[in-house]
Design a protein that fits this description.
The chain has 313 residues and is α+β, with helices and mostly antiparallel strands. The protein has two domains: 138 residues, Protein Transport Mog1p, Chain A, CATH 3.40.1000.10; 143 residues, Protein Transport Mog1p, Chain A (3-Layer(aba) Sandwich). 15% of the residues lie in helices and 45% in strands. The protein has a seven-stranded antiparallel beta sheet, with helices on both faces.
Length: 313
């Protein structure tokens, strides 16, 4: 979260991160819908009242110049407004933002509500990103649009992607695609993969209730039982991100990984800790070639649980 900076929407700003795209948005906005993958997709952010931001991206290099995309989009909105018997107006070429390495066009449209948008094409990675803020006709969106649009970052920073949504923050290797995600209120799971390597980030709420009288060494193997099927493992205590935790280390049975007889060993590892400050459980889990297990340490370092976490391992 951007510290102590007020947003025009009220409250503070924070960073939103999804599929390699990072934006500065009001802290009251959060993820309510997502579809697609790194190549192309769509998300919506909303406050307690309504949808406030729509974000679309396309990395296929098939999207046309920003001006052409805006022309087609505004024609579509105008046609829809006519069918619904509503007035429609639009403005093109607004000077709202000029993010680095981007070709952009900014615009505004209005019917019974308004939208301010920016169509961007990255000259470095080729990714096309369409941002649109939504609000009532009486809302002053221009200042907010300048902040959000100027903050756009659409590709990897230092070989990792920052994921920041709800109050979760972690970093995944840029080459790993999101394979599956679960965004339940009490348990967030994000599974990434590259080839046969898997890396998963898990956060479980209400840790004291979930654990009960059990310790991490008893709770986690049961929680993670499906992934540990046909794996031999051992558990040891460790300090992780400044908190008491455990490290699970193991490998698949020989019938699952017969190539280990030829030196191609696979490993399963998990780093799990209890953050008492937030009353949550955090886990980073690796399953892949033993030669790549080093990415687990980076994953733990980049998975933020509280103010004590950065650099505290």
């Amino acid at each position: 979260m951007v510290p102590a900076e007020a947003s025009p929407a009220g409250g503070e700003y924070k960073t939103f991160g999804w599929q390699g795209i990072n934006l500065t948005v009001p802290a009251a906005w959060d993820l309510v819908f997502t579809q697609g993958r790194h190549q192309s997709g769509y998300v919506r952010l909303a406050d307690e009242d309504a949808t406030r931001l729509e974000l679309r991206w396309d990395a296929s290099r098939q999207a046309g110049p920003p001006a052409d995309t805006v022309t087609a989009y505004l024609k579509k909105l105008a046609k829809r407004a006519r069918k619904q018997g509503r007035d429609f107006s639009s403005q093109r070429g607004l000077k709202l933002a000029s993010p680095p390495e981007k070709q952009v066009e900014c615009y505004r449209w209005a019917t019974d509500r308004q939208g301010m948008g920016m169509m961007s094409r990255c000259t470095a990675c080729g990714r096309a990103v369409h941002l649109q803020l939504l609000g009532g006709l009486d809302e002053a969106l221009k200042g907010l649009a300048r902040t959000v649009f100027a903050s756009l970052r659409d590709h990897s920073d230092g070989g990792v992607h920052l994921w920041s949504f709800f109050d979760v923050e972690f970093r995944s290797p840029a080459g790993f695609g999101l394979l599956r995600h679960g965004l339940q209120a009490g348990c967030i799971r994000m599974l990434f993969g590259q080839g046969r390597t898997r890396l998963e980030f898990i956060r479980v709420s209400l840790a004291q209730v979930v654990l009960g009288q059990k310790g991490l060494a008893e709770w986690f193997p049961r929680f993670y039982a499906k992934a540990l099927k046909r794996r031999s493992y051992a558990v040891r205590e460790a300090e992780l991100s400044g908190h008491a935790g455990i490290v699970l280390e193991g490998r698949p049975w020989l019938l699952v990984n017969p190539l280990r007889l030829f030196g191609r060993r696979r490993s399963v590892r998990a780093a799990v800790w209890h953050c008492e400050e937030t009353n949550r459980l955090f886990a980073c889990c690796f399953d892949g070639p033993e030669s790549e297990v080093g990415i687990l340490s980076d994953a733990v370092d980049g998975f933020r649980c509280c103010e004590r976490a950065p650099g505290a391992r």
